[in-house]
Amino acid sequence: MTDASLHAAQRASLLGFSDIVRIRNRVLDMKARGERVLQLQGGEPFMPTPDFVKEALKRAVDADQTRYAPSSGIAPLLDAMRSKLSTRNHIETTTDNAIVVNGGAHGLFCAFQVTVNPGDEVMFFSPYWTPIKDQVTYCGGIPVMVAWDDIRDRADPGVLLEKKLSSRTRVLYVNSPSNPTGNVLTREQLQSIAAFATAHDLIVIADEAYEDLVYRGEHVSMASLPSMFSRTLTVYTLSKSFAMTGWRIGYVVADQAFMGPLRKLVLNSINGVSTPTQFAALAAIEDRSPYLATMRDEYLRRRDLLVQGFNDAGLRCPSPPGAFYLFPDVRERLGSDSWKAMEQLLATTSIASVPGLVFGQEGEGHLRMSFSTTMDVIEEAVEALRKL
Ligand SMILES: Cc1ncc(COP(=O)(O)O)c(C=O)c1O
To answer: How much is the pTM?
Structure first.
C-alpha cells in the first residue's frame, strides 16, 4: 500500500463537525482562564438522571443481565414501548414495529439510511437541528430547506412545502417540538404536512425527541394521524425526557416495510444497545410517577424568567411552546451577523449562546440559548442582561 491510499473513504468527507463544538471549546478555554461563563449554549437536561432509572441499571447488573440481548431490544422493553406508544402517542403497533437504538442521533441515522437513495431530495424546515443536513448528505441525498419563519406566521405548511417539491422529493423530516426554535406544530399544521406527504407519496421521518417538553398546546405524533403510520418512521430518545443524554438509548417505530432494513442496520452497526441500559430504559418508560410533570414545571419556571430577561433587554424573544431553547431575534440590538452577536453577548454579559446561522441560513440574526440550567445561572443571566 502506498501512502497515497492512506486516506479515509470519500463518503466520510460528506459528514461535517458540529460548530457547536467550536463554541464549547471557546467556553472551556475561558473557564480554564478562570473567567465566569453562563453556559446557555448547551442542549442537555439540567438535572441528573432520576434515581429510579439508576437503580434499575444497578439491579440489572447485579442480576447479571450483562450478556448479548436480541439486537432489536429486550422483550419487556419492546412491550413497554408498545404500551407507551398506544396510550401517550396514540400510535397502535405490535412489538415488531419498534427497534431499540443508541439514542435519537443513531435512530435518525438509521432512519435516513434506510429511506434515502442517492439523488433523493429530503425536505425539512429551517432552522433545523444541525446534524440533519449531514445525515441526509451522507446517504447521497439532497437537503431541501423550507424557511421556518413562514410557519411561525401560521402559514399553511403544506402550501410552503409544495413550493419546494420536485420530482426527486422522497422524504420529509419533521421535528416537533423543534430544536432550535422550540416551536410545536399544531394538529392542523401536522395534518397539512400529512396531506402533502400522502398526496406526493413521501416518507416522513418524525423526530419527537422533545415530546415530553410541551408547555403550551399538545404534542401530536405524526404517525398517529389517519393513514400516516405506514409512511412514517418515528424517532424517540430517552435523552431529554429522562435526563439520559449519556446513556445513549432511544427507539425507532415504523411499519414492517422498514423494520427489516432497520434491524439489519442495527445488527451490523451496534448489534444492540447495552443490556443493562435497556433495563434502565424499561424503568423510565414504565414510570407512572409525577417525574415528567415535575420536570416540565421546572423548565417552565426557567423559561418564563429568561424570556422576561431577554425581552427586558430589548432582544425580541418569543416564549417557546416546547423544548428548552430560546431563539430570540437579536438583529435590532446585536446586528444581523449571529457569530458576531454571539461574541458580543459573551463579552458583555458572559452568556454563551449558539449563533442562529449554525442552524441554517434562516436562523441568521438569531441566537439559541438553552434554559435548561440551574435557577442560579438563570437569575445570574437575567441580571447580566441588564448590562446589555
Ligand atoms: C431535534 C433533536 N433530535 C434528536 C436529538 C438526539 O438526541 P440523542 O442522540 O441524545 O438521543 C437531539 C439532541 O440534541 C435533538 O435536538
So the answer is: 0.96
